[in-house]
Amino acid sequence: MSESTAPQAKKVPTERTHHGDTFVDHYEWLREKDSPEVLEHLRAENTYAEAVTGAQKPLREAIFNEIKHRTVETDLSVPSRRGDWWYFTRTIEGEQHPVYCRVAAGTARDADTSASQDGAATSEPDAGERGSWTPPQVEAGVVLLGEETFFDTNAEAAKHPFYQLGGMSLNAEGTLLAYSEDTSGDEHYTVRFRDLTSGQNHPEQISNVHGGPVLEPTGARAYYMVADAAWRPYRLYMHTLGTPAEQDRLILEITDEQLWTGVGLSADKRELVIISGNSEYDESRLLDVTDPQAEPVLLISAERRLLHSIDPIEVDGERLLLITHNQSGPNNALSVTTAAALTAQSADTGSAASADQPLDLGRAVLPHEETVKLEGVSVTAAQIIVAARRDTVESIQLLSLDTLRAALAGAEPVLTSTLPGPAFDDELYTCAVIAAEYEAPLFRVAYESWLTPTRIYDIDHATAEPVLRRETPVNDVDLGAYRSTRIWAPSGDTRADGSAIEVPVTVLHHRDVVADGTNPTLVYGYGSYEMSMDPSFGIPRLSLLDRGIVFAIAHIRGGGELGRGWYEDGKKLKKTNTFTDFIAATDHLISQGWADPARVAALGGSAGGLLMGAVANMAPEKYVAILAQVPFVDNLTTILDPELPLSALEWEEWGNPITDPEVYRYMKSYAPYENVREVAYPAIAAVSSLNDTRVLYVEPAKWVQVLREAQRGEAPVVMKIEMDGGHGGASGRYETWKERAWDYAFIAHHLGASERLR
């Protein structure tokens, strides 16, 4: 076969019958991942993709070099205090991964530097008190006096073709590190333990762990999750340091195949909070980590069908629980109660009377609001930090302990929208808590906008004034050369009250680009799992803006930008709203002059890849190119098989087509793989990874086969597969930049926008 000839997989008819409907799948055999024939076919796809896109190579190299040049490669993070240590990361030019460093509190400060014995620059010791929470000033390439490298990711990654950390956990004294690593991309991690005094790993290790470990404060025990065959974390184990993994104690097993379990320490690190849930309800438990014999305590069972989270807090010596929940409305409310009050009700769950009664969640603290989505809280000893979303923007508000005390005493709840919080200048931004140590006098947030690189602020609990610690540097960029604006696209739908439903669309462009109807435009979308496409700064995106491309983000239904209702209007039997919103956003960009109707491309990944497949079938004529990253395009086949990774968990998002014929028919009506038709499709690129456990490579592999068969136009259909990567692609920042350059070059090429603006 010539490199310029598209690979043609053989046809092996496989029948799938449900609810009286039989679908014949000719390419299901490509699911045999270990088959030499399948691997040969996938390599042929890569060869073909490279041949078809060969002319784009100079553009790929140019975009990669722009990303590399603009990124400060030797850089660092702001030190964050934990116990008696300041922790931070360094990145080094030429190295793929970060280096994890620390320095003892009180030994480093922003001072004159001097040469050490080996010639490296070092800082003078800090004469300040050990209790100071002002981080030491760290400079790129300048080693602090007493600085330690406690984990060099590059050294670990050098041993493997793929390397990714799953998580890190430290004990309170900072003498023990527990970490997990994935060396294949399949997200099956191995947990290891490192003595930070000697720098040596303990001999024991734990294989096939899901995610990262959690150390309790003394470091004597670690907690971790194990996934079942469908990649659902369902077993919680406790490992005692110094013992073989085979002796680890099984703490909890969740048998409900629709529940995904996650764990984390409470703010004061006294309890392990265990949440088993999905997109519609949760089950919650607490485990006392100070007692190695403790058993999990059930607080709210899944039978209650309550979407909620639990945050333990101690007020005036009393142990309380803050419950963020949707019992009062879809945008959540906050209540305060006790574990005893909840366990008393959980004991009655099986009775008919209790099933019909709402839970008594104690005193209301923050009530439900129609225009504000309460996302959650962070507990500290000084106050409660509230994350809330309003008009698509998520920011933070501050809830005092006195307000909580008043609620406990019977006062009326306070509206989240009236709480104080730090103020910022940008209209559209993201502000999120990244560190809130329980006893610290301050907390830390990360702030960014579409055109503002990430800024790190420390906020004093007493004054709520943000103190800027750092703004991520960007080389040789005039950020004033770019603009962002928000427009609202009519969806064509109306609400129950008769008001029109409009889709928010963020428009990013170079200042020299105006809405004159001539612009090449890329429309990006996701629209699933209540995930919001919040403002974020991205260096790679600048390469598109510099070529005159308008970058538009369609905040479509199925996402969470406009509250829970926005999400619910784009899931299950309303899923097609996600697709029609994206098309409506495209049409509005054209009608408003932002986009040339002959030069529009589309981009989406994972569930956004399903969006790309659906849009390609519904409106292929509106786009000249579509790039689908790890696309979920054979979703009906996947969700019909509960043995496949994550399938059963997807029922709460898409519906259960196994038991419900209406759901089956609805999903079949839009499933991208099953709705390919004989039309002129735009240029399509499907990008995948062989070891992806979330969206299996077989979905795009099958999809591109039927697309080529149905293609009645001249545009190419290609598949590029990373043979050593996972859901996020290859590991390492340079490899990530190369992948982004490939994607953006494909788009810019087909938009006819390869040259930078003059």
What does this protein structure show overall?
Helices cover about 20% and strands about 35% of the residues. By secondary structure, the protein is of the alpha+beta class. It has a domain at about 480-750: Alpha/Beta hydrolase fold, catalytic domain (Rossmann fold), CATH 3.40.50. The strands form nine sheets. The protein has an eight-stranded mixed sheet with strand order 32-33-35-34-36-37-38-39, with helices on both faces. Helix 7 runs parallel beside helix 15. The model is unreliable at about 110-130 (pLDDT under 50).
Integer-rounded radius of gyration: 27 Å
Can you name the CATH architecture of one domain? 3-Layer(aba) Sandwich
Helix amount, in percent? 10-25%
CATH domain class name of one domain: Alpha Beta
CATH superfamily membership of one domain: Alpha/Beta hydrolase fold, catalytic domain
In terms of quaternary structure, the protein is single chain
Number of helices, counting only DSSP H or I runs of 4 residues or more: 15
Q: Report the biggest beta sheet as strand number plus sense, adding barrel if it closes.
A: 8 strands, mixed
| CATH topology title of one domain | Rossmann fold
Q: Estimate what percentage of residues fall within beta strands.
A: 25-35%
Poorly predicted ranges? 108-131
Features:
single chain; 758 residues; alpha+beta; Rossmann fold; 8-stranded mixed beta sheet; 7-stranded antiparallel beta sheet; 15 helices; 39 strands; 20% helix; 34% strand; globular
How do the helices and strands line up, and which of them pair or pack?
Elements: E1 14-18, E2 21-25, H1 36-52, H2 57-70, E3 75-76, E4 80-82, E5 85-91, E6 99-104, E7 113-115, E8 121-123, E9 148-152, H3 153-157, E10 164-170, E11 176-182, E12 189-195, E13 201-215, E14 221-227, E15 233-240, E16 249-253, E17 260-265, E18 271-277, E19 282-288, E20 297-300, E21 308-315, E22 318-325, E23 333-337, H4 339-346, H5 352-356, E24 363-366, E25 373-379, E26 383-390, E27 393-400, H6 401-408, E28 430-435, E29 442-449, E30 452-460, E31 466-471, E32 482-494, E33 500-510, E34 521-525, H7 539-545, E35 550-554, H8 564-568, H9 576-591, E36 600-605, H10 607-618, E37 625-629, H11 635-639, H12 651-654, H13 661-670, E38 683-689, H14 698-710, E39 717-722, H15 733-751
Parallel strand pairs: 34-35, 34-36, 36-37, 37-38, 38-39
Antiparallel strand pairs: 1-2, 3-5, 4-5, 5-6, 6-9, 7-8, 10-11, 11-12, 12-13, 13-14, 14-15, 15-16, 17-18, 18-19, 19-20, 21-22, 22-23, 23-24, 25-26, 26-27, 28-29, 29-30, 30-31, 32-33, 33-35
Pfam families: Peptidase_S9, Peptidase_S9_N
Family: Belongs to the peptidase S9A family.
Organism: Nesterenkonia sandarakina
